[in-house]
Amino acid sequence: MAKEEQLEGSDVVFDLINFLNSSPTAFHAVDEAKKLLKKAGFVQVSERDNWNLEAGKRYFFTRNYSTIVAFTIGKKHVPGNGCYIIGAHTDSPCLKLKPISKVTKGGYLEVGVQTYGGGLWHTWFDRDLTVVGRVIMREGKDAYSHKLVRIEEPILLIPNLAIHLDRNVQDGFKVNTHGHLVPVLATAIKAELNKVVAGNGLVDSENDKEKSNKITNTDDSRHHSILL
Q1: Per-residue model confidence as pLDDT tens digits over 35-44
Q2: 183 within 8 A of 156, measured Cβ to Cβ
Q3: Structural element, H or E, at residue 32
Q4: What pTM was computed for the model?
């Protein structure tokens, strides 16, 4: 019996780890939670609709794709009875891209970010970082949709300063969130080598040329093209 309970406990731990690994942002966490709830028999409802709820059934709804509320109605439920509420965060401390993230300094392409939450920011140095979140897509003239984004490969790094350039670091290091937490994306030389420029033979087709011009004209002044 003890061995079976241990195996069941291990399954719960692995399920939790898989959920956390699949939920780098609140948007991803809600999306993963939706899949689990639907698998468990929960029915999604919308705050915009009138609800026709039934005793013994399970429901959930989302708000802004970053909040999820799930609830069950007991088979013997009577209006006016009490209820139990359990709450938890879907978000966590992170670095968020600024609306204008393009930073170029000392021959390096950097990405402007701002801190979110109370993170242990000294642990973010010298670690492989990537970009996750969501983007809002225009679907026609007046329609928009949201898409989850997750770049699997590490593309950013916040390097520590070499020891011979900061001899006092052994006495303690205090993170300046504005000056120190600026991830490096690439060197300026690498960006130039990977740049797609219409009309110079590096664009494969008219479609690629159109995409390149569109990105350059709308977003290049706010974000590095290599990031986009």
Answers
A1: 999 999 999 9
A2: yes
A3: helix 26-39
A4: 0.77
